[in-house]
Structures are given as C-alpha cells and as structure tokens.
Amino acid sequence: MWPAISNFATAVASVILCAAAVKLVDDYLDQELDRIVGRMNWSEFLGSSTMVYAMLLIVFAACINASISLPLFLSSYIVGMFIKLDHDFPTRLKGWQESFIVFGLGILFFEWSNMVFSLLFILSVQLFDDCLDFYSDRRAGYHNWAYRLGIMECFLLAGVAFSAAWWLGGDRFPPVFWGTTIFYIVLVRCQEAKICR
Known about the structure:
- With 197 residues, this protein is mostly helical.
- The chain has helices spanning 2-29, 31-37, 43-46, 50-81, 95-109, 112-132, 134-139, 145-149, 151-169, 173-193.
- Helix 1 (2-29) packs across helix 10.
- The radius of gyration is 17 Å and the shape is globular.
- The model has no long low-confidence stretch (mean pLDDT 83).
- Keywords: Membrane, Transmembrane, Transmembrane helix.
- The chain crosses the membrane at residues 51-79, 100-125, 145-168.
- This is UbiA prenyltransferase.
C-alpha cells in the first residue's frame, strides 16, 4: 500500500514542478501580452532569472519522474507552437516542423502512448485556458484558440482532448490530473494575493 501511495505522491510532485517550469517559460515569453492585459507575470518578480529557474524546475521534475514530466514538457512546447505553425524560428524551421521533430524525439525516448497522452492532456489544458482568457486576450489583440474557433467550439474540443487523454492515460492520468489541479489552485491563490507584484 505504502509504495503505491509513495509512487503516486512523487508523480504528482513531478507534475507540479513541470507545470511550474512551463508557467515560467510561458510568462517569460508572454511578458508584453500580460503587461497589456494586467495579468500577473512571474517574470516581473524573477526578472532575467526566470528561464534559469524554469530549467531548474524541469530538471528536478525529471529527477523525480522523467517518464511523466518530460513528455508533458515536450508536449507543452508542441502545443505552444500550434499558434505559430507558419512562423519561422531561429532553426530556419517553421512551427509545425519543430513540433513534428519534437514529437518524434519524444516517441523515440518515451513510448508513443505516453507522448500522445501528454499531448492530448496539455492540449485540453491549453484550450480550457484559452476559453478563460478569451476576453483579456482579445482586448490585447491576441487571437487565442477560443477566438479562432469560438468559445463553445474550443470548450468542446478541450473536452474531447481531455476525455481521450483520460481513456489513453491509464495509471498516468490520476497523478497528472491531480498535479495539474493542485498547481492551478496554488497559482490562483498567488494571483489573488498578487504576491509577485
């Protein structure tokens, strides 16, 4: 009994650290947008060290449970590219090409079902988040997926992706779900307290 509880707890901790790393990367990249809409951004508090802390967090997450945290991190990168599929990056590749390469490498290092599960789960989180941020993003002139697809369509697609991740995830789903939930609860608390302003 205790080993199962311990494994679950460490997996949840790994997901929380991974989510925190993704949040820091996202905040670092979205500083201007968050400033326009008046949204809390950890880069205001951490400054140029934001990416360093993000790297530390994902390293610790991988040390705890690499098979869960790293596919989630790679999937976050892939989903982040979705909005810029035709954009040219420093690699001279477009967003969809980088996404394809990262997904392929993820399958190479982790089993395909783990990568597909992670991609579906992260996609559902991103789509739900876009629904919540629809009005603030639109005010800033940022066209997220809720704007592009419509709020209801985006919400339904998020539900489909979430259900598919639940079906495919097996034993991986509960710790990923609870780790993400705990992270978002803490994040909302931080936003309410405005501790990084």
